[in-house]
Amino acid sequence: MNRREAREQAFFLIFEKTFKDEPLEEILEDAMMARDLEIDEFARRVFHGVEDNQHQIDAAIEENVIGWKKNRLSRVAVSVLRIALFEMLFEEEIPVGVSINEAVDLAKKYGTGDDASFINGVLGSVAKKLEKGHA
Fold it and tell me: Which of 78, 60, 67 is nearest to 119 (CA)?
């Protein structure tokens, strides 16, 4: 499985978590059984990493969605932003530009018409702050 496919698996898991207040391992197990699939190690790391760092990630979302509140965003947009921000803030070996491009692609595939440009703007704002060392 390539990184893009693993990221998509992580997206499905994180998206599902927005509907269920269950332990991560239960969501993982349900996903594997329901879809008869093996969860990629990178997808697991992202899924757990988003959960473990959700307060910091969600704070970054709130800080960078100008004129919006996180609770007004679609579940797809929040899930995609969480993945990208986890990568940008905690996965040093993944270039920021790759995280942004992959997030935009996920938003185009699963979001509404405006999600991709919105997500690109939010992540671009975070990237500028990271360059300055302020994220």
Answer: 78
> Who contacts 49 (Cβ-Cβ below 8 Å, separation ≥6)?
86, 90, 91
Quick check: 6 and 42 in contact, CB under 8 A?
yes
Give the pLDDT confidence of 41-78 residue by residue, as tens digits. 999 999 999 999 999 999 999 999 877 666 678 999 99
Nearest CA to 85 out of 126, 113, 36, 34 is that of 126
Residue 58 · residue 71 · CB < 8 Å:
no
* Residue 102 CB neighbours (<10 A): 20
Name the pTM for this structure. 0.91
Sign, CA dihedral 44-48-54-57, equals negative
Residue 123's closest CA among 69, 60, 42?
A: 60
* Residue pair 110/81 in contact by the 8 Å Cβ criterion: no
35's tokens = 């879809």
| Tokens read off for 97 | 């530009």
